[in-house]
Amino acid sequence: QVRLVESGGGLVQAGGSLRLSCAASGIRFSIAAMGWYRQAPGKQRELVADISSGGRTNYADSVKGRFTISRDNVKNTVYLQMNSLKPEDTAVYYCTGGQAWGQGTQVTVSS
Questions:
Q1: How do 10-13 and 105-110 pair as beta strands?
Q2: pLDDT digit string, tens, across residues 3-61
């Protein structure tokens, strides 16, 4: 059974940084594409960033240059480093991979 557990969310002021982590189990992590999505109140869930098994990355235009996705195939963990946060980044952030979703972690950016 695939299990994804996110951590690292919280409340931060605009311009601040947070690092999200997603620990995976039950999948062959090293060959799995992984991704981060987010959903703000009243909006659809949207892709933030994803990373292939080979480390190729893809970002939403809204986060390019501010967010960095990375993976550690020894720790079976994917990360999302978020810098220069803006109030519009406020959302629940979800990790996905192996056809599974995590429970989400709240990120709130105050102005």
A1: parallel
A2: 999 999 999 999 999 999 999 999 999 999 999 999 999 999 999 999 999 999 999 99
Give the ranges where 1-111 is alpha helix by DSSP (H).
Answer: none
Residue pair 41/30 in contact (Cβ under 8 Å)? The answer is no
Q: Which of 11, 17, 10, 9 is nearest to 110 (CA)?
A: 11
Tokens found for residue 4: 């994804």
Q: How far apart are CA 61 and CA 48, in angstroms?
A: 9
Residue type, 41: P
Residue bearing tokens 């997603």:
22
Q: Which two tokens stand for residue 34?
A: 């992984």
CB atoms within 10 A of CB 102: 22
HSE of 99 in the Cβ direction (CA atoms, 13 Å)?
A: 1
User: Which tokens go with 49?
Assistant: 């960033």
Give the C-alpha separation, 43 to 95, whole Å: 17
